[in-house]
Structure formats: C-alpha cells, structure tokens
Amino acid sequence: MKAAVITFPGSNCDRDLAVAFERIGAEVVRVWHKDAELPKGIDIVGIPGGFSFGDYLRCGAIAAQSPVAAAVKDFAGKGGYVIGICNGFQILTETGLLPGALLRNAGLKYVCKALDLRVETADSAFTSGWHKGSLVRIPIAHHDGNYTIDDEGLKRLKDEDRIAFTYADNPNGATADIAGVLSANRRVLGMMPHPERMAEPEHGGTDGSVLFRSLAATMALA
Amino acid sequence: MKARVHVMLKDGVLDPQGEAVRHALGTLGFSGVEAVRQGKVIELDLAATDRAAAEAEVARMCEKLLANTVIEKYTVEIG
Questions:
Q1: DSSP assignments along A81-122, one per residue
Q2: pLDDT tens for residues A73-104?
Q3: Quick check: A14 and A55 in contact, CB under 8 A?
Q4: Is B69 in the A-facing interface, judged by CB distances under 8 Å?
Q5: Is domain B2-78 given the CATH code 3.30.1280.10 in the classification?
Q6: Do the chains contact at B70 and A99, CB–CB below 8 Å?
Q7: A189 pairs with which residues across the strands?
Q8: Which residues form a coiled coil (chain B) (predicted)?
Q9: What is the ipTM of this complex?
Q10: Which has fewest Cβ within 10 Å: A45, A91, B5, B26?
Q11: Hey, what CATH topology would domain A2-221 get?
C-alpha cells in the first residue's frame, strides 16, 4: 500500500497522518501543495488537518485551488481513494469532491476534545473494520466543523448510505449530527474528527487505528 | 475599474456569528434588533475598462473562489 500525504502551508497534522499510514505498513510519500502531479502508483491520498493558508477567505478555499488539488480531483475521478481529515474535509467540500460545507461551530468556540462517534455505515474501505452502530472514541479539534447541507442533499446522503460517522453528542451544530461523509463511489471520505490522533495506546486510545487497518485490509485484497 | 463583491450566507443557512452579534447588541441595550446576518465585502481593482466584461469576469471569480455557492450568495457592484 502506497499513500500520498499532502502538505499545504499551515497544515499541522500531516506528519501524524503519515505516521498512522506507516503504522499499517504503508509506504508514505509526502507531497507539497505546488506539486501538480501525484506520485505514481499510489493507492490513497491523505489530506491532513491544520489551517491551510491561514483559513483565509474560507477554510480550505485557497487550498482547493492549489495545483495539487487538481491532481487529487483527477485521482478521485479515476476511482482513487482519498481521505480528508478536519481541514482536509473542508478542502474536499471546497473542491466539490464531497457535498455540503463546514461552517463556524454553532457555539462559536473552538472545540478540542475526545468524543464518541457512531459508525453509520460499515460499507466502505474506511469503516469496514467496524459494525454499523459501533461507538468509537476519536478526538475533534476545530472551529469550523458545523456540517451544513440542504434538505435534498441530506436525503441523498441518507438514501445512499453515505453518512460515515455521526456525533453521539453534537459538539458543533452539524446538520443531522454528521461528522463524516462519503462520496457517491464510497472512495472519498471527509471527516472532522482525527482518527490519526487516537491510533496508538500512547494517544489514550486506539479506536482511530481501526480506520487505517480497514484501509490496509481493503488494499491487500485489491 | 473597481469592483465590490458582497458575500452573504444564503437565506436559511444559520449564521452563528450574526446571532452572537445580535445577542451582544441586546446586551448593550440596543433593543429591537430582530436579526443580524454577517457577511463580507471584497474590493477588487481591475485593469478592465469594459463594464459588462468586468462584471462577467468578477461573477466567474465569485463562482470559482470568492463565494462558496453551496452556502453563500453574492452580488457584484462595478465602479
């Protein structure tokens, strides 16, 4: 398994994400935002958390126009796997690869804590290691995680079983408690919580590692 | 030529910041503020001299970057 992890100016979870991929035996290639092409032979692209371009204009808006974003869109369009975590999720909605948008938390505060998520579907390469309905403990750390989507879009997500995770106790006002969503082909995942920050015993828990192990299992079968 | 872009959240999209401002105004004694919506203004200096062309160009900028049309609406003023 070969993973590309992108770094934008202001990314700050890129190394953590790279380590999480390495822990499952993946070869990790670090990619700079100005690179117009992704490395050859990669199985998945990771878009990390942080504050790309200082969150100027809107979170993720500038990163979504960077040269590497065009390459990620192309990769996803060909059926490639992509995971965007936190700012990565914001970037994926700004590129249009995932529906909806992330607005300022309803409570207006930056929220940084571990909380319970409900796995809403096990039908994806990212969540196959869990059962639908599993409760998992994974931290969030964001100011703009209030997932917003119109009624029609929400219905589509529900009908197509594309809500990956919901919050057991909604911390940010997100529509339908949504913490993470999948693309129509189920190969692009965006999520506000940080599985890479709960992936080793020293992190205080390992629930997040299930996501990376699920990916490894899928890639091994491919 | 100057262009001014107003970007606002679409009607129906909850604006927590606007709501906080409304609450703060109430605390300061400004009664009767029934709603506050907060947006942004972006000013552009353009080399273009043709008004219609500039307006069309700025609209394209809005669609591509300046606004997120999933949640935001925009208006463009030229001149």
A1: EEEEETHHHHHHHHHTSSSSEEEPPTT-S-EEEEEEEEE---
A2: 999 999 999 999 999 999 999 999 999 999 99
A3: no
A4: no
A5: yes
A6: yes
A7: A83, A182
A8: none
A9: 0.88
A10: B26
A11: Rossmann fold (3.40.50)
